[in-house]
Amino acid sequence: MADxxxxxxxxxxxxxxxxxxxxxxxxxxxxxxxxxxxxxxxPGNQPFFSAVVVDTLGPxxxxxxxxxxxxxxxDRLRVIWLGRTRVPGIEAGVQLRLxxxxxxxxxxxxxxxxxxxxxxxxxHL
Length: 125
What we know:
0% helix, mainly beta
């Protein structure tokens, strides 16, 4: 019996990737999404490189609201690479798979220094 909340898998299998909206509030997770934007730090500041990951690119994304003690689904994940000013291949429009620990930062889910795999790139005409 696989536990899908924890990225359910059995021995020898890769963890099941989730969308950004399906991430747990905290804990290890694997997700896929598209880079919506990246942030570069100005020189002289502590170096880090940041990206915002979403389930889909384009208009019409909305944030769900829930009442009671139910976890609110988020439509964005902030990914932060500490000590880096750039991460090769990470740019707006890229689809990737992330593997890391989810935590909360300023009320939004975040992953610090996750493992990543680029799945596809958007072609610019």
